[in-house]
Amino acid sequence: MELNMLEAKFLSLPKDVGFRTSSYPTSLFGIHSYPKSNSSKVICARVSNSATSNKVATSTLLFQSKINGINEAISRTLDYFDDEYGGVIVNPDRLPSNPNVFASLLQSSLSQWITKGKKGVWLKLPSEYSELVPMAIKEGFQYHHAESGYVMLTYWIPEGPCMLPANASHQVGVGGFVINDKNEVLVVQEKYCAPPYVGFWKIPTGFIHESEEIYTGAVREVQEETGIDTEFVEVIAFRHAQNMAFEKSDLFFICMLKPLSSEIKVDDHEIEAAKWMPVVDFVKQPWIQEDSMLKKVTDIFIARMGKKYCGLFAHHLISKFDDRSSTLYYNVVNTRDSNCIGA
Amino acid sequence: MELNMLEAKFLSLPKDVGFRTSSYPTSLFGIHSYPKSNSSKVICARVSNSATSNKVATSTLLFQSKINGINEAISRTLDYFDDEYGGVIVNPDRLPSNPNVFASLLQSSLSQWITKGKKGVWLKLPSEYSELVPMAIKEGFQYHHAESGYVMLTYWIPEGPCMLPANASHQVGVGGFVINDKNEVLVVQEKYCAPPYVGFWKIPTGFIHESEEIYTGAVREVQEETGIDTEFVEVIAFRHAQNMAFEKSDLFFICMLKPLSSEIKVDDHEIEAAKWMPVVDFVKQPWIQEDSMLKKVTDIFIARMGKKYCGLFAHHLISKFDDRSSTLYYNVVNTRDSNCIGA
């Protein structure tokens, strides 16, 4: 049964998630192209020999049905939606719980979808349907991604390169430089840290949540670790590192924050100590002086304090193409109060 | 059997992937704290009632063994490594293929790990072991993430908040402004695009690969779509949008690129047409004039062309803490050739 695409949202598959050639409405200048097939990671299942043989085998699964007095051969399929890009999304709310029934229906569905010239197949299996996972893998599906409550599997039908989009590739961290009017920087010592960092006073840092703004995340992390309320000023630099946790990459945004309170309340779970430290003492720390990365960031921070540096402000903008609000980080252009010369 | 941690790398679990309180050696200012338990997404399995009852049931799985002439009760476990944070990593190379054997061993392993005060359990199941997935779920494990060849499941043993780190939360896109010495900008029309974009000349865009630099990705995308070779100059702005594909977020970096060639070769697969377009014509397009996001980015681009704007350059730095090379994006400070006044 083919259902209307309108209901597909609950699948966590926005309708703009399709193939590489599909539109990506929130893209700044039109369309992102999805990752190329020459990506380091193949994210599609290929039509394997076993799947091909299934195409034949499934013909035995055709059922006779009498509709309007005419005998028609129709094959039963899993409940699914068509997506906008020639693919199908299996309805996770109407999965058969019996693995054998699922396996048969998956075979006959694939057979029909191949006949119909369908492209990618999205199969989201909630945790309570984990017994269906081996059936899907056997049929030629591959894991695409997983979250705590489900695993998503995919299958790419056509010959040629796989056009399905990859899942997220980066984690995002933030660090906050908070300076008070006594030229003191807010610093913390982590409770549990690697030997090189013991005794090191650092700025508060942390990961942002999956659906959190960079500026919100920086303010939250500082508040959680030190109890200090702050206001985001700007991103002064960011670092990009490859192959971090789970082979994904890491983006780390260094933010200037303005303190709105002064009394420190340390988060006992992860912070050993926190304090306001004179900037000169912060900079003098050997960890900073001896490390090119830390030294450079500190230089930027000092230049920013001296109003000799331009960072990127956060501006909220809504694109008319999708009515979606997003945040554009850019410098202030052609204004007298540019932070290059004094914010 | 407990093996040495040294071999854990093949698990794609760098040794710094542990719990929130563990060190994160490449963090710019020490330690990122892992996502808080009040994160929007719970990523750990909790010790469920069924798992608790399993703790009792597994006592029947103890085996008698005679070591040095003494009878000792030892329980069999899955092959695993200790990680540095009090957790265990199940060895994916020595999984029993029989699901029933696996289920029994998982139960007795959990029982032992609980007794030993272990914390998180990482269970990586390659695709060929998909039959073990339902067994792990039944035992209380939850999906953590998946890639095409495997699914990773986790289990959090202690009372209290889950401290396991989340998987990647963002996808990263790039767009390239390429200007030649005739004040023409390199633009493309996508082959397949949503109705609002039909006829829109846009800059080349795309996602970066999982282990690719922003500057490399921008140059690659431009080359793939148009055949034009370029050199990265700087990031002039970036956009952050929430809840995009698969509910993850999106970071999009707008880059200035310098052309190194001029002859256009269109990528037939995804690009309808590409050309060098006078900047005045590019800006005049109604799509840009009527959309606040596109208009702002174009303003920034024009300001940058007029050398009245500061972007962020890419600098390669190695931190002495981990000998890892990463890229720091920042503006040029205190130099006469700052791009604020003319690069």
Secondary structure layout plus pairing:
The structure is a homodimer of 343-residue chains.
Chain A: E1 2-3, H1 49-57, E2 62-67, E3 70-75, E4 80-82, E5 88-90, H2 99-115, E6 120-126, H3 133-138, E7 142-147, E8 150-156, E9 170-178, E10 184-190, E11 205-207, H4 214-226, E12 230-241, E13 249-259, E14 271-278, H5 279-284, H6 286-289, H7 292-305, E15 313-318, E16 325-330
Helix pairs in contact in A: 1-2
InterPro entries (chains A, B): NUDIX_hydrolase-like_dom_sf, Nudix_hydrolase6-like, NUDIX_hydrolase_CS, NUDIX_hydrolase_dom, Pre-Nudix
Domain Nudix hydrolase (chains A, B): 169-299
Keywords (chains A, B): Hydrolase, Metal-binding
Radius of gyration of chain A: 27 Å
Major sheet of chain A: order of its strands? 1-4-5-6-8-7
Full CATH superfamily name of the largest domain in chain A: Nucleoside Triphosphate Pyrophosphohydrolase
Share in β-strands of chain A: 25-35%
Helical residues, percent of chain A:
10-25%
Give the overall shape of chain A.
elongated
- Uncertain segments of chain A are 1-43, 47-73, 334-343
Structural class of chain A: alpha+beta
Mind telling me which CATH architecture of the largest domain in chain A this is? Alpha-Beta Complex
Mean pLDDT of chain A: 78
InterPro entries (chains A, B): NUDIX_hydrolase-like_dom_sf, Nudix_hydrolase6-like, NUDIX_hydrolase_CS, NUDIX_hydrolase_dom, Pre-Nudix
Pfam family, one (chains A, B): Nudix_hydro
Keywords (chains A, B): Hydrolase, Metal-binding
GO molecular function, one term (chains A, B): metal ion binding
